Amino acid sequence: MSTDSAALTPGTRPQVPAGIDPRGPQVAAAITSVVLAVTLLLGDSTAALVLLGLQAAVFAVGAAAGPQHAPYGWVFRTLVRPRLQPPTELEDPAPPRFAQAVGLGFVVVALAAYLLGATLVGQVAVGFALVAALLNAVFAFCLGCEVYLLAKRATA
Questions:
Q1: Average model confidence (pLDDT) for the chain?
Q2: Which are the contacts of 71, defined by CB distance < 8 A and separation ≥ 6?
Q3: Residue 69 and residue 50: Cα distance in Å, rounded?
Q4: How far apart are the C-alpha atoms of 14 and 118, rounded to whole Å?
Q5: Residue by residue, what is the 3-state secondary structure of the chain?
Q6: pLDDT confidence band for 3 (50 / 70 / 90)
Q7: Which residues on adjacent β-strands are paired with residue 91?
Q8: For 42-70, what is each residue's pLDDT tens digit?
């Protein structure tokens, strides 16, 4: 009996790190890009505030539960992934989760700015979030993920 199997009691499973399909956050970023672009086009209207509020909710779920549990993750799992080949590798969900929290921060700043009448500040915050989302959607470069990894390295 090996030491690995001795550590397991009947009915338990070995701990395998959970991973996510890296294409999921990229699809979510594409949807986010559309939402944020439409928000900018709508200006400081009520419709823009509603869209920002909905995007904030999506980011909040992604930051709290992980991007795979957010509404856009459901869209990817249900509508997109079944039409794709299985991923060649899985990704740690922690960096995209952090990126969702950063996105939430920018959207909350934008919402507050719009509500306080600081339209330009709101547009700049939405613009920063849009650029980050577009980088992920178009180039598969997750800016928030990179910040997460740099912070991990700095604190290691």
A1: 91
A2: 58, 61
A3: 22
A4: 53
A5: CCHHHHHCCCCCCCCCCCCECCHHHHHHHHHHHHHHHHHHHHCCCHHHHHHHHHHHHHHHHHHHHCHHHCHHHHHHHHHHHHHCCCCCCCECCHHHHHHHHHHHHHHHHHHHHHHCCCHHHHHHHHHHHHHHHHHHHHHCCCHHHHHHHHHHHHHC
A6: very low
A7: 20
A8: 998 999 999 999 999 999 999 999 999 99
Q: Which of 100, 4, 18 is nearest to 57 (CA)?
A: 100
pLDDT of residue 18: 72
Asked whether 97 and 62 are in contact (CB, 8 A), the reply is yes
**Could you give the CA distance from residue 47 to residue 39 in angstroms, rounded to a whole number?**
8
Residue type, 118: A
What's the rounded Cα separation, in Å, for the pair 85 and 130? 28
Token pair 């999921």 is found at: 24
